[in-house]
Amino acid sequence: MEAIVCGNVQECSQTRFATGCHEKLFAITGKRKSTTIMLKKIIVVCLATTAFSFSLFAQTYPYQNPRLSADERAKDLLGRMTLREKISQTMNGSPAIDRLGIPAVDWWNEALHGVARAGKATVFPQTIGLAATFDTAAVYETYNMISDEARAKHHEFKRNNQLKRYQGLTFWTPNINILRDPRWGRGMETYGEDPFLTASMGVAVVKGLQGDGTQPYDKTHACAKHYAVHSGPEWSRHSFDAKNVSQRDLWETYLPAFKALVTQAKVKEVMCAYNRFEGEPCCSSKELLVNILRTKWKFDDIIVSDCGAIKDFYAPGKHETHPSAEAASADAVISGTDLACDGSYAYLESAVNKGLITEADINKSVFRLLRARIQLGMFDDDSLVSWSTIPYSVVESKEHVAKALEMARKSMVLLSNKNNILPLSKSIRRLAVVGPNANDSVMLWANYNGIPSHSVTILDGIRSKLPTENVIYEKGCSLVDKNVFYSYINACQFDGKPGFKATFRNSKDFTGPVAAIDQVNKPLNYDGGGNTVFAPGVNLSDFSARFETVFTAPQSGEVVFTISADDGYRLNIDDKEALSSWGIGKQPRKTYKLAAEKGKSYRIVLEYFQAEGNAFLNFDLGYYQDVDPAAVADRVKDADAIVFVGGISSALEGEEMGVELPGFKKGDRTTIDLPKVQEDLLNALKATGKPVIFVLCSGNTIALPWENDHVDAILEAWYPGQQGGTAVADVLFGDYNPAGRLPLTFYKSTQDLPAFDDYSMTKGRTYRYFKGKPVYPFGYGLSFTTFQYGKASLSKPVIAANDSLLITIPVKNTGHMDGDEVVQLYVRNLQDPQGPIKSLRGFKRLNIKQQQTATATITLNNSSFEFFDPQTQMMKVKAGKYELLYGSSSADNVLQKVMVTVRL
């Protein structure tokens, strides 16, 4: 009897219910009482302390033992699964397997610049802005906070028995594609145009998300995407073939960041891209997946497909490289793609039966998937997982909001400041704020975002610096259109809550259980591009939605309701149909005009269904006003200065969007020019003779060849997150000295760019190959103070194989304001005249007090001199002389030079 008890005590300690039982057994058996009565009491005590429905003596298996390695546990569990059960786990919505205690999971989660699409979260600046900080330590700290929020939110969902999409621990970020062309709509999700900067930022992100590796369980899992040779066009990505890519471009531009994240940061997932590479879909590319990722880089963790990418192999009008779903799924798994973010892998059982793939091939993928969940603690009790103790109070905590402000400040890039018009005086008598982005909180969030409790618009930020009566506001114009739409969304509420109540069902006819309920306090702007659901728990297709609100007219007059959608919609006002387009397919934009009476309330119900294709729904209510630049200028001409807040927004640029407006196509841009309606208004504002400061919000390059004629200062604010308005105002009024640097090149015009679908870098793309004169070069940014660089010193003039050297660069703040300077180090390979003009190989952000000197010490190891070798068609370090170029940007006229010799 005693032997049996001891065996079960040991067993008990290795399972979820064990801790309390084990302690009680030890306490009692430690008294050496061994009677049958005492043993029965022990059993009763154990059963009383566990919430599980199996006895103390129930069988446990190795996969349930947290003391074993993740490999051992995954191998044991795999051996207990049927083929059908294994296949069920290879799709992003993996069902529960109750008989084995495997809970359901949806692998899809997002954390591009904060936990996304799962309600409340801190929204940090969009990643292109984070890249502009040139501060990897701060980026690491940011993503450590994001993973804190991720863990806290996950365990809160888990406590409430929620296992929906965007509630798990596997985050499909960072996007480390190279921003090769500024027309790409998703460029804002990247870290810019440079491979080294992208790799440096990406490594910091992964380490911040996954943890330092010292804990028994990983904090979360990150994902390097989209592998590889992927950066638009969005409109053709499901059929596009990135072909004729040179080996130089592949290895020097498109692969370095992925290699760094795999080999240095040990990223746990890699997402293969939608497009083809040299004829093969990226998710079955033998070169990318087998030869490079699995073989050369020894990556043995999860490869996940982009959402719908496997279906693209065989769907009509897409790649059409495979004859069937069975053939596509089999080829993808054999090539190394473990997890399909679509339903194609459901055909794997049929593929096995047809001899297209073996169960042993599938086992490799399922093993990796099971191991990853074990590494995250998903099969163990939360009491064993230290991350589960992170309190929910960290979500949008004061510390995290403060960090969002810090990162927004650090991201600001001062592009122009004629006659030192900035900073503005806080004693200014009258300041006009004009522009379509000035009072737009949603613009601050960009895409792949969470929802903050409060956002500070740029107008809010400016108003906080001055007496209310000193600030006048005019929207002035829209982003693109020649008339301005003023939304009445703030005049809507339902059951005492602002905005619309949204109710979703996973049926086209509004039947069945409710899939999700949401409260939406902004214009409805849903787009299913990139397989993005309208709300967690809602299907991508075959669903319906009802939006309800009560609109109280703030004034008498015409109210315009505007709708466009794919598929059908109908609008009722006070139970009467106002608009209807109840068909399948893209429905035309329609408007309805209501003669409203001030103070009267109107019940609004909008119904929408989606059947097939790409779901989108746009709806707003308000009124139009024609743009009259001269009239706007006349209304603000008495101001002492004018701040124009314009640019673009993620409503125009983004992932495979349904929006097509002048200059935009499916989320990409057809031109990099500032929309003409904004340029015309800037002309009118400048004609007042008053100083004009342009706050530019964008996720990418905007052509500004006219900047000296139109404006007196330009501040690039990106999409700066929930604290963006405070950060902008802090810079405008001198409470923060800007030090952001451009992670991309600002070209003069679209004519400076090669064809959008040409993936060759050597045809003049990015600062590394562009031979023209940019408006603002990569790495550029001004300050309110001045810096002087001294002569650099090297720890050694010659570097041998597997050696490293230190370059020490003195920098003096010669101005009268404390500030940051970003010291940049570029390498020019004199052995290869056909290679890049120069390549970033190091940077350091320094805080330097006025009239003080600081030193930047940058380490260069042997790999810093690794470039593509045309003779061997490989990356290698060649013996010879290299130029080290250091200074405040990539522009030749600000760089100093020192030589170093490499010997092998």
UniProtKB/TrEMBL annotation:
GO molecular function, one term: hydrolase activity
Keywords: Hydrolase, Membrane, Signal, Transmembrane, Transmembrane helix
InterPro entries tied to this protein: BXL, Fn3-like, GH, Glyco_hydro_3_C, Glyco_hydro_3_C_sf, Glyco_hydro_3_N, Glyco_hydro_3_N_sf, Ig-like_fold
Keyword Hydrolase belongs to the record: yes
Membrane-crossing segments per the record: 42-61
Keyword Lyase belongs to the record: no
Signal peptide coordinates: none
Similarity comment text for this entry: Belongs to the glycosyl hydrolase 3 family.
NCBIfam families assigned to the protein according to its UniProt record, in alphabetical order: xylosidase_Xyl3A
Protein name, entry field: Glycoside hydrolase family 3 C-terminal domain-containing protein
Species: Pinibacter soli
